[in-house]
Design brief:
Number of strands: 0
Largest sheet: none
Distance between the termini: 26 Å
Oligomer: single chain
Strand content: under 5%
Shape: globular
């Protein structure tokens, strides 16, 4: 499940860079101090975790109907892996990369206690190639527990970027984060591209 962790790592870095202007004012700053910040961050992380578990359950049950044969489970999954892997690399380093933060809607929330929850929801459901890849992987797993494990590893990888926020202050090395994120995304893209091609070939041979 290391590939799921790496995929989450690439996803988390991209989100932190693009959504930093929305996340940082609500999770880091404020007069409430470190304790309130930790509580807000915990709510944010818990919301993301619960949404990922819900997604893992939904896509697995959906996948049971779609991937009903070995051929579909290998060939179709391999095709999706390959396409989304290419999109993942392009999303990260291409000039046409989407720069908008899906959590920008949080700026309009009046009740500040709802901000961490709203951030968790919009952050988890901000569709990108990395999320599409983990959705495909969860849907193609043979057991529900394997789907859960894939999403948990994805969650842990993406969460590494958010855990230090209460102690990090302002993001002063945005270029460094972008470089790390680009490298992680590139490696994850290559891994899933190779895995996709392997599944396609296996599906054609065994189908």
């Amino acid at each position: 499940m290391g590939e799921s962790f790496l995929l989450g790592l690439s996803s988390g870095s991209a989100c932190l860079v693009t959504c930093g202007m929305v996340l940082i004012p609500y999770i880091i700053s404020g007069p409430a101090g470190l304790r309130r910040t930790v509580i807000d961050l915990s709510l944010f992380m818990l919301t993301r975790f619960l949404i990922y578990l819900a997604l893992a359950t939904a896509v697995w049950y959906f996948g049971k109907a779609i991937f009903s044969s070995v051929f579909l489970r290998t060939f179709l999954t391999g095709t999706l892996y390959t396409v989304f892997a290419i999109m993942l690399v392009w999303y990260s380093i291409g000039r046409g990369r989407r720069k908008d933060c899906p959590a920008a809607i949080v700026k309009k929330v009046d009740n500040l206690r709802l901000v961490p929850v709203m951030l968790g929801i919009t952050n988890s459901l901000g569709f990108c190639p990395a999320l599409l890849l983990i959705l495909t992987k969860g849907a193609s797993q043979q057991t529900l527990m394997q789907s859960y494990l894939a999403f948990v590893m994805f969650f842990l990888g993406s969460s590494l970027w958010f855990v230090p926020l209460p102690f990090a202050g302002k993001l002063k090395r945005k270029e460094t984060l972008e470089l790390i994120g680009t490298m992680a995304t590139g490696v994850a893209g290559v891994i899933f591209f190779v895995k996709g091609l392997t599944l396609i070939i296996g599906g054609l041979i065994n189908g």
